[in-house]
């Protein structure tokens, strides 16, 4: 698969899901259990992506400048600092550690 | 899209003032009241829309850093247009390259599942004029448009909030994606600039507003642990999908739902 194939298929899938909400009969995902799972699915995927993005290096697990950067990001989110600033600071922390080590 | 931060989360929108706080005590003329509701919803839409649009910069830069070109990055923001899925796709591709195509598509699609729920909620409100309107509504059905609509007390305000927020986020998100992509293109060595850490911080920003409940926190920790343990043994991309099973198990049996976390 080329990069364009991946992008086209993934975009078609997410767009189809959006349209799906308007064409399938309401009900199924409104029920408590499916709605709860749909909600938690988002949480699980984001948390897994954070773990892989912070600790993964191919198939290895490594502790490097990304870890302190993420800790700083968490502290800033807790202080309600806006998203864009947090992302920039996290990049700066990692870049700074790499520049001086 | 975040706090409410990225196109992603209708569960909480701190940027939206409560429309019910509007003064209507002594019953002024009904017209005045609906004018007030109208300007309140326009204010909501603008604040959420503009705040969200700014995250496009980080998406654009990270997307280029993960190996997509500017056109591919723009295609995602124009057509996929749902921040969580966009970040997930480029995140998995960054880790695994073309070999992770399948898991990358699956991760993006799974993160798009919540838009089905949003569509079901918005349909009675906005799907009123045939197929073109329906597709347009579906296209802009994201966390922000849904959240602003749900925060309104009147149907007319909710409808206006949905379309206005969706339109502002769409235009702003695409403009800032382009800016971010061009910046990312110019940066070169992305690790030296810390863009890999920025990606993790971006995901954390999408996750943060969802961690109000103990149950969500438990799922987040469990999924992160599973993904980490699975990384050395599974091909890139799959650990994220395996971690999604944590949500399935916890959600099915409704585990850890005893009390609320402190906000």
TrEMBL record, chain A:
<dbReference type="Pfam" id="PF05437">
    <property type="entry name" value="AzlD"/>
</dbReference>
<feature type="transmembrane region" description="Helical">
    <location>
        <begin position="37"/>
        <end position="57"/>
    </location>
</feature>
<keyword id="KW-1133">Transmembrane helix</keyword>
<keyword id="KW-0812">Transmembrane</keyword>
<feature type="transmembrane region" description="Helical">
    <location>
        <begin position="69"/>
        <end position="97"/>
    </location>
</feature>
<protein>
    <recommendedName>
        <fullName>AzlD domain-containing protein</fullName>
    </recommendedName>
</protein>
<dbReference type="InterPro" id="IPR008407">
    <property type="entry name" value="Brnchd-chn_aa_trnsp_AzlD"/>
</dbReference>
<keyword id="KW-0472">Membrane</keyword>
Automatic annotation (TrEMBL), chain B:
<keyword id="KW-1003">Cell membrane</keyword>
<keyword id="KW-1133">Transmembrane helix</keyword>
<comment type="similarity">
    <text>Belongs to the AzlC family.</text>
</comment>
<dbReference type="InterPro" id="IPR011606">
    <property type="entry name" value="Brnchd-chn_aa_trnsp_permease"/>
</dbReference>
<feature type="transmembrane region" description="Helical">
    <location>
        <begin position="240"/>
        <end position="256"/>
    </location>
</feature>
<dbReference type="Pfam" id="PF03591">
    <property type="entry name" value="AzlC"/>
</dbReference>
<feature type="transmembrane region" description="Helical">
    <location>
        <begin position="190"/>
        <end position="209"/>
    </location>
</feature>
<feature type="transmembrane region" description="Helical">
    <location>
        <begin position="48"/>
        <end position="68"/>
    </location>
</feature>
<protein>
    <submittedName>
        <fullName>AzlC family ABC transporter permease</fullName>
    </submittedName>
</protein>
<keyword id="KW-0472">Membrane</keyword>
<keyword id="KW-0813">Transport</keyword>
<feature type="transmembrane region" description="Helical">
    <location>
        <begin position="160"/>
        <end position="184"/>
    </location>
</feature>
<keyword id="KW-0812">Transmembrane</keyword>
<feature type="region of interest" description="Disordered">
    <location>
        <begin position="1"/>
        <end position="33"/>
    </location>
</feature>
<feature type="transmembrane region" description="Helical">
    <location>
        <begin position="88"/>
        <end position="113"/>
    </location>
</feature>
<feature type="transmembrane region" description="Helical">
    <location>
        <begin position="216"/>
        <end position="234"/>
    </location>
</feature>
């Amino acid at each position: 698969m080329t990069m364009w194939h991946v992008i086209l298929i993934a975009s078609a899938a997410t767009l189809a899901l959006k349209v799906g909400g308007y064409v399938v009969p309401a009900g199924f995902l409104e029920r408590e259990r499916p709605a709860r799972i749909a909600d938690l699915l988002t949480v699980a995927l984001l948390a897994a992506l954070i773990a892989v993005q912070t600790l993964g290096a191919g198939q290895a697990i490594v502790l490097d400048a990304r870890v302190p950067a993420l800790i700083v990001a968490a502290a800033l989110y807790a202080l309600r600092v806006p998203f864009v600033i947090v992302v920039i600071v996290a990049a700066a922390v990692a870049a700074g550690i790499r520049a001086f080590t | 899209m975040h706090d409410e931060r990225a196109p992603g989360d209708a569960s909480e929108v701190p940027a939206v003032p409560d429309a019910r706080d509007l003064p209507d005590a002594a019953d002024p003329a009904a017209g005045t009241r609906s004018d007030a509701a109208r300007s309140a919803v326009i204010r909501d839409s603008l604040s959420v829309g503009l705040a969200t649009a700014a995250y496009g910069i980080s998406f654009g830069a990270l997307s280029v850093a993960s190996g997509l070109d500017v056109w591919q990055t723009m295609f995602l923001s124009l057509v996929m247009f749902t921040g969580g899925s966009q970040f997930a796709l480029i995140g998995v591709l960054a880790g695994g390259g073309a070999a992770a195509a399948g898991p990358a598509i699956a991760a993006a699609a799974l993160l798009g599942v919540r838009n089905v729920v949003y569509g079901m909620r918005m349909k009675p409100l906005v799907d009123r004029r045939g197929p073109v309107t329906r597709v347009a509504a579906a296209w802009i059905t994201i966390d922000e448009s849904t959240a602003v609509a749900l925060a309104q007390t009147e149907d007319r305000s909710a409808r206006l909030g949905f379309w206005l927020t969706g339109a502002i986020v769409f235009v702003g998100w695409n403009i800032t994606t382009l800016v971010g992509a061009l910046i990312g293109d110019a940066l070169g060595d992305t690790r030296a600039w810390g863009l890999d850490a920025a990606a993790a911080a971006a995901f954390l920003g999408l996750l943060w507003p969802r961690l109000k409940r103990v149950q969500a926190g438990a799922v987040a920790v469990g999924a992160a642990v599973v993904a980490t343990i699975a990384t050395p043994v599974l091909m890139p991309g799959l650990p994220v999908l395996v971690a999604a099973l944590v949500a399935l198990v916890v959600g099915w049996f409704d585990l850890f739902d005893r009390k609320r976390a402190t906000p």
